[in-house]
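Ticket opened by: R.M.
Priority: normal
Category: complex prediction / small molecule

The reporter submitted a protein together with heme C and asked that the result be attached to this ticket for the collaborator who will pick it up next week. Submitted input follows.
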Amino acid sequence: MMGRNWVLVSGAVAVFIISGIVVNGARARGGATQGTTVGPKTAVQQFKNIQVLKDIPADQLIPAMQFISASLGVECEFCHVEGAFEKDDKKPKQTARVMVGMMFTINQDNFRRAARSDVLFLPPG
Ligand code: HEC
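Result attached by the on-call engineer:
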């Protein structure tokens, strides 16, 4: 039972990470390299216990959470202690974090490659 659920979870989390959110994270990083500290707050600055989705804009975190919940067809409480989202007491949250982390690492590697090719096309100065 649990095993099959987790195959589903990992599939949905993978889809979620590949779509959208990582692109947003990359955009946030891109902004930072343009030499300005003005920009959207990142999730790690706004929330208490962010270990993986640190670089995404803070205002993307809740939509991302809603997307995960909708994808899995579960409530926030599937992963979270009600009223204490920062707590890691629930096993599904820990498992989800590990999977999000793996996908995030893979995508960051892809983006590093993409970013390098962008540099070639930057105008001088
Ligand atoms: C499949 C599991 C899962 C579901 C369902 C889920 N979350 Fe999360 N949530 C996580 C994980 C994992 C993190 C930590 C992310 C990290 O470490 O980068 C997190 C972090 C958060 C945080 C940041 C807490 C802090 O202060 O550190 C908030 C707020 C949050 N979730 C809200 C929600 C809401 C609202 C919902 C329902 C719409 C929801 N989550 C559904 C897994 C889940």
